[in-house]
């Protein structure tokens, strides 16, 4: 941290009649080579997440949020896990968010604003439940918020997830944590992320956004996933799984049905490019 600049931004009380949310303040830890450029963008995004999530989940943060961005990925890895080389983009520890800066992972697959939006959702789901939220639900809310309110809105489903849907690999909701903690096939972690996001999308659409907040309240009271679903949604986990499967089929069934044909066309296209047969391309 000798090479970092610490910027503390004061708390903002919710002004009556403005609709703005209470903001307990933000502390930014940014590398001195990047702070002048990054600070206004990071602060603006963090403030927008606080305003958005406070309203959507009915929970006010009690402490300032600390956000650290690392231009060296291994510095970030050591900060969060004590070891270099770990393949993560960001991690949240309650009121502390640590992540790669745009420099730390300067490739087209990394959008730092989306990562920060995702991690800030964890601040709310962790603190609103006194850290009792199941892994699947915290990740599900974060993925759902990426899709619905984040800097790059829109549902983004990777191909391995579509393949898992086709092969009926989604887990029952009461067992979904297992997909994160004890995966049994190579892509199961990312499949579980996407399943959790789709579940939260389904809950918000079927039962309303307030149902997601009710689920957090049940988890804070020590409920299991099965108990929280029954209490917050008024439905059994088994019936929930059936209804969710029908939702996934309605939303993605047509795409999944064409997956094999699309993959065959992609293979043909790659072969054509390799042959440099540009007339067919």
Can you tag this structure with a few keywords?
281 residues, alpha/beta, 5 strands
What does this structure look like?
With 281 residues, this protein is of the alpha/beta class. Helix content is 55%, strand content 10%. It has 11 helices and 5 strands, in the order ββαβαββααααααααα. It has a 5-stranded mixed sheet with strand order 1-2-3-5-4. The chain starts with a strand and ends in a 7-residue tail after the last helix. The mean pLDDT is 94.
Q: How would the blueprint of this fold be written?
A:
Blueprint: E1 4-9, E2 26-31, H1 35-57, E3 65-70, H2 73-81, E4 90-93, E5 96-100, H3 112-128, H4 135-149, H5 159-166, H6 177-181, H7 188-207, H8 209-220, H9 225-233, H10 237-257, H11 259-274
Parallel strand pairs: 2-3, 3-5
Antiparallel strand pairs: 1-2, 4-5
Category from helices, strands and their pairing: alpha/beta
Largest sheet: 5 strands, mixed
Strand order of the largest sheet: 1-2-3-5-4
Instruction: Compute the average pLDDT.
Output: 94
Distance between the termini: 52 Å
Number of helices: 11
Query: Element order, helices and strands?
Result: EEHEHEEHHHHHHHHH
What fraction of the residues are assigned to beta strands by DSSP? 5-15%
Quaternary organisation: single chain
- Unreliable runs, pLDDT <50, ≥5 residues? none
Number of strands: 5
Radius of gyration: 21 Å
Short recap of the structure:
It is built from 11 helices and 5 strands; from the N terminus they run ββαβαββααααααααα.
């Amino acid at each position: 941290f000798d090479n970092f600049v610490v910027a503390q931004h004061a708390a903002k009380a919710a002004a009556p009649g403005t609709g703005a949310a209470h903001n307990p303040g933000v502390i930014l830890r940014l590398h001195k080579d990047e702070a002048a450029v990054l600070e206004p963008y990071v602060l603006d995004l963090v403030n927008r997440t606080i305003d958005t999530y406070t309203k959507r989940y009915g929970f006010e943060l009690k402490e300032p949020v600390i956000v650290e961005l690392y231009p060296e990925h291994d510095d970030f890895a050591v900060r969060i896990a004590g070891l270099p080389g770990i393949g993560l983009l960001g991690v949240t520890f309650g009121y502390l968010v640590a992540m790669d800066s745009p420099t730390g992972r300067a490739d087209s697959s990394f959008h730092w604003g989306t990562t920060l939006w995702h991690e800030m959702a964890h601040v709310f789901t962790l603190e609103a439940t006194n850290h009792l939220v199941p892994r699947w639900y915290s990740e599900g809310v974060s993925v759902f918020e990426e899709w619905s309110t984040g800097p790059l809105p829109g549902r983004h489903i990777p191909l391995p997830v579509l393949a898992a849907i086709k092969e009926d690999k989604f887990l029952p909701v009461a067992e979904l944590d297992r997909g994160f903690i004890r995966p049994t096939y190579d892509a199961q972690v990312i499949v579980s992320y996407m399943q959790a996001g789709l579940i939260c999308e389904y809950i918000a659409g079927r039962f309303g956004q307030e149902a997601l907040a009710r689920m957090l309240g049940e988890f804070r009271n020590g409920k299991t996933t099965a108990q929280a679903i029954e209490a917050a949604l008024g439905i059994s986990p088994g019936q929930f799984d059936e209804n969710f499967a029908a939702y996934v089929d309605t939303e993605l069934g047509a795409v999944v049905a064409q997956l094999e044909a699309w993959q065959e066309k992609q293979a043909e296209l790659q072969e054509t490019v390799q042959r440099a047969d540009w007339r067919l391309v």
